[in-house]
Amino acid sequence: MWKAVGSIGLAERVDKAFNLVRYLVEQMRKREGFHLLWEPEFLNVCFWFIPPSMRGKEGDADYQDRLANVAPVIKERMIKRGTMMVGYQPLGDKVNFFRMIVLSTLVSKEDMDFFLDEIERLGNDL
């Protein structure tokens, strides 16, 4: 890869990926329902999507159980519709969350917007 694109080409790819991660996080912060687990590390953006029916109910006894089911249901829907694919996982005491890794040089800001729109579309009725 280094021989193919050179040092400048690799630097441009890395810069683009970091810029897209910053853009994605900025857009998430503007939208209700997206909750970052922590500030992104490198190119990983870990987040929950909180459906409207669960917002403001963090104190409910079944909240964590319900939240754990959100990512798997949205993932199943995106696969069935063939619109996109993103991973999810639990970690320690954190229930299932999405883990978006921004790496491809073909991804654009428009793709990031589509990603957020699609998560909302697929999960707003949960």
TrEMBL record:
<keyword id="KW-0210">Decarboxylase</keyword>
<dbReference type="GO" id="GO:0005737">
    <property type="term" value="C:cytoplasm"/>
</dbReference>
<keyword id="KW-0456">Lyase</keyword>
<comment type="subunit">
    <text>Homodimer.</text>
</comment>
<comment type="similarity">
    <text>Belongs to the group II decarboxylase family.</text>
</comment>
<dbReference type="GO" id="GO:0004782">
    <property type="term" value="F:sulfinoalanine decarboxylase activity"/>
</dbReference>
<dbReference type="GO" id="GO:0042412">
    <property type="term" value="P:taurine biosynthetic process"/>
</dbReference>
<protein>
    <submittedName>
        <fullName>Cysteine sulfinic acid decarboxylase</fullName>
    </submittedName>
</protein>
<dbReference type="InterPro" id="IPR015424">
    <property type="entry name" value="PyrdxlP-dep_Trfase"/>
</dbReference>
